[in-house]
Amino acid sequence: MQNNKGLRFYEKLAKRDASYEQSMQLLGNQDESDYWIDQRNYERHLGKANFTSYLVYMKGKKDAYHEHVQTCDHKYRHSELYLEKAKEYLSLSNSDELLSLKSQNVVQSFTQKKKDNKPEHRK
After folding, report:
1. Running DSSP on this structure, what letter comes out for residue 104?
2. 92-118: pLDDT as tens digits
3. 20 to 30 Å CA-CA from 45: which of 1, 39, 107, 114?
4. Would you say residue 50 lies in a domain?
């Protein structure tokens, strides 16, 4: 039971950190850069000290970033550095959505499969 509490702590911490990162637009470039260096060092240390907690933390960050991409209304303008770091937290399949944030285009973008996209059979 104690282990589950510890893992929930890292899940909540990840969501809190992601929320802070998504609202950092008021920081200066040097402060933001320093934050990301500290964040990377924290994640590396956590991974070495307790790999299970690291995995829970990183999954929490990925989930929080994915949720933000889905709901971002562009109220906050994200910096280039934020967008670079966000790509690290999101899976490759989510990168298209992140790029739509960068270009300040439509919030929702869906890819449609062609109806007649049938696999070819080789003889």
Report:
1. T
2. 344 444 445 444 433 333 344 444 444
3. 1
4. yes
